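Could you show me just one protein sequence together with its fold in token form as a worked example?
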Amino acid sequence: MLDPITSLLCNFPLAYSLLLSSFTATLTYDTLRFGEFEDFPETSEPVWILGKEYNALTEKDDILSDVTSRLWFTYRKNFPPIGGTGPTSDTGWGCMLRCGQMILGEALMRRHLGRDWRWARGQKQREEYISILNAFIDKKDSYYSIHQIAQMGVGEGKPIGQWYGPNTVAQVLKKLAVFDTWSRLVVHVAMDNTVVIEEISECSSSLYALAGCCRSLCRIGGSGGEETPLWKPLVLLIPLRLGLSDINEAYIETLKQCFMLPQSLGVIGGKPNSAHYFIGFVGEELIYLDPHTTQPAVEPSEDGQVLDEMYHCQHPPCRMHICELDPSIAAGFFCRTEDEFDDWCMRIRRLSCNRGGLPMFELVDSQPSHMVSVDALNLTPDFSDSDRLERFFDSEDEEFEILSL
């Protein structure tokens, strides 16, 4: 029988080979991906990025500037332990959480800076922009940090370090937005593939909550372009299932048209085992930001400034064929004013009349009788009935729930 040292030496080549293989796999996925990016295609087909149309032949710089200006949240390492004793990195489990940060970050940018704001390296940034970044810094007291999302997810039946689906992320963001008194957003999650206008009006307009008056009264003191005290900027998240194991091709045209709406915040979803934030399309390819790059955690300086270059993707955006998309997604829209919401409703109704694709969701004035509210289910705040909660909030299958390397 070999002694331990001799046994170790004899098996060293195998152990070294396994270690090197594991290291190479991680390195290839997480670090060398920067060498895989292709330049943006030379095509006459229109390019759509979050409601804006571009010409790839004449406006390539504008396309890249628009993409770079989106907030890019990735895996981080060496941040304070989540919950005091939890993980200090989200590599391997936080990709959907980071996608949730990106879609909400886009909403905050629209809210405080506007759709046409552009980022440039080294320029002096506006205070609103710095405040937005600080809301996502990886520490426990930031509104939308990985710490807050992970810990709030416990209430949705997801232990810290477990992978999320689009539904869970949407529900968590809805809860966290309540504490953001600076942005005063209302996050509404439309369930059962149905957007109920009455529900949105009730949560976005204090007048509805108090008196239930007609919608026209909500414009007292406003004239279409500005916010009124009776309407809070709306983030509408719609978790959807667009097929069984693969996306149903009947939804593809409708999905593409959603990126063309001026209210579009994009889509969170991905491929099996890999979550992405989709911001547009060109031809039959989706354009997306990929969170699967591990970067060091960032600490703001004493004056509150943030080293922000790592929060903007400065290489050509990733692309994938739309048929590769996993059918479990959540589409997002932002309506700063009630007029913008009315415009969104009008556009969605037009899409529903088109014969080029199957509607992804239904838009109705009031709650259909077959729909059951959360209150009717009598779910307690701590959601102790995790099995029932999982069926209600997370319809995606386990294949998409496990979003790992």
About this structure: Confidence is low (pLDDT under 50) at residues 4-35, 207-224, 374-405. The first strand starts at residue 46 and ends at 49. The CA atoms of residues 30 and 293 lie 5 Å apart.
